[in-house]
Amino acid sequence: MSRKNRKNDDLLLLNMINEKLSKTNETFDDNNNSNNTVKKNKKDTKKKNINIYQFVEPESEESDIELTPSISKSSTGIENTPTPTPSNSKISLSSKKNKKKKNKKAKKQSSIANSINVSSSDNDSHGEDEDEEDDEDIASLLKDIQLSNKYKSNKKDDKIAPATFEIDSLLYDPGYTKIYSIYSQVLKNLFSENSINYKLLDFETELKLLFDDLSDELLNEEVESSLPFMKNLKKIIKPWGVKKNGKELVPQGKNLTKELSFSHVMPDFIPTWLPDFQIEKLVTDSYFLENWELERTDDWKELIKEDYKKIKETIDKTITYYKVMPNNFESVVKVNSEFYLNIQLTQDVEAFIRQCRQPTNYYNILFNYQLIQTLIIQSSNIDQNSDRFPEINQLLNRCIFIIDRSLKKKFEFNGLNQLPYNYFYNRIYYLVFLQYIRILNSKGLYRTVGEWCKVLLSLSPLEDPMGVKYFAGDCWIKSLDYHWLIKLSKSGIVSKYKEWKCVNILLPTLLAFIRLGDVDGLKKFLKQNFFVTKDDSNIILKESQYILGWSLKQFLNVATKRSECIEKNKYISDYYILSLELYLQSYDNTWTNDEITKLDNILNKFEMLDNNFTPKKDRNQISNAHFIKSIPVNFVRLNHITSNTEIISKLNNLFDRSDMKDYPFDPIPNNDSSFEFIEDFTNKKLLSALYEGRLMNFDEFMQ
């Protein structure tokens, strides 16, 4: 652990440990053995001179990443498996360095302990071996202290409490009009400074932390091309991949350069002077009015304009909307026309592959993503056991490079810079990000996955087109980012609309409270979200609490083996049942039996409940810009993209495919005409000529 004042390091360690031991009597410890241990520790701490170091203050901690490879116990007494741990200190993972540091630290600590009379009779008999074991306990205790201290500090950042949100239903507010008065403040609080660790967006950061002896040669999977023209291009096009202050540079013309934020120039990449894509700023007025007129079909245009005037000043000054566009539009239209012919009209895979091999299409993200989709379909999965995994991985790295190069120099993922999903190339970016997250998750890079989930959510927090809320909760649990998960669940991005308060994000939040040992916070969160109390006057809130309370009971029944499946409830709509079934597919990857038992015990002891409330039976079959028969479009989209056959089969029973537009790069686009499609980037006359030529060649071949 790095500190400026090295002399006070061991004194600080002992002081922090004494404070930790005095606070270990948590209500989670139900058995007598743990209670006896806590009492014994308290007696021992009374004998020590606890206040002797009260004037010793720690230096400011650096914001970085800590990885603890050993198995440790949190303040709840639950064992945590070896996973990357977020923290504010640096720890080297080299085993040789750790052994040297442990030996030096053990000797130094034993001398200090003797000088302040904090020693026991067992030290003489066990010697240095026990010192090393104590050193591991110290590391474990310090990790818990850092987590608890960080949690306390993060509580202060929540400027808007959940109780201040007047919950509504998105079924009757397709334009999200009820949240815009507080939207910018919610985003600033949620994506505040240091919310996203930009270093971890580069997957090599976590790899180097996990494997301290990795070299750059081992990290680069691609072999450098030996083709003469590649070597000549790299000599001409400079700087290409040159590092400056740890960042790789690429040219943006002959006089401009761009620092890559989260991608790398792989050795086999073809050097180019200019990026193939760029992002353009949209005019907020026209964007809002066009979309609201299409989404709010039941409202007059005058009313829509009046509503926009109320939020115009706040939104226009804080949030910026961007649209991804190709740099050379004319050439892209010609290429896309041939692409559309090969993929959509004739399904000529050989012609498509020949087109992909052309150097001009090397950095065309549309071609790269289509190749990724083809390989995923061929391999039937996206994990590392697939034979196609190296090709998928290589293509995704190229796509991420294309995206990184297209972003503006000071583009931040702070929720205030957004890419609306209804634009064609914006959607390709979203689809690439989702598949990239799946690849990183298959590699076990959970910290990197957690940061990318935040990025994906920040690009369109209200619409959440990729359904981040339905899968990212488990990702943040695996990355031990408990504070962010709690912060998100309390924010308006989850608490404002009934449909957003899904079990897929709230159940992992309960687990985050358990992992942090915050019993009071857990009970308060349960009461606010899962139980219908007599004090609630908002009918929509009561319905939400009833639905979530039923879902929680069903989850515990299945998890504790009291029931094999979900019991049907006539007051619960299909959407909430399917959401719970989606979560039950993967909950056992994050929850332990002890954690499930503890939550079940707390739930049984909870009081102040009103079980007499029953909501109105949900018979809504609303279809609008964001719903298909009252089921959110992003929920349907996520399951289709990830090929979740179990959920898809049940969705198909609820509505047929005629309810959804058939589209090659998004099977479930929103039901409004503001969507851009690939046809908007093709030339119909050229497409007709190419198609006729293809038919003539086919006739000649048949003759």
From TrEMBL:
One of its GO terms (biological process) is rescue of stalled ribosome. Residues 69-82 have a biased composition (Polar residues). It comes from the Eukaryota. InterPro entries: TCF25/Rqc1. Residues 127-136 have a biased composition (Acidic residues). Residues 23-44, 57-136 are annotated as: Disordered. It holds the Pfam family Tcf25. Residues 96-108 have a biased composition (Basic residues). Coiled coil: none annotated. Residues 109-122 have a biased composition (Low complexity). GO terms for cellular component: RQC complex. This is DUF654-domain-containing protein. It comes from Hanseniaspora valbyensis NRRL Y-1626.
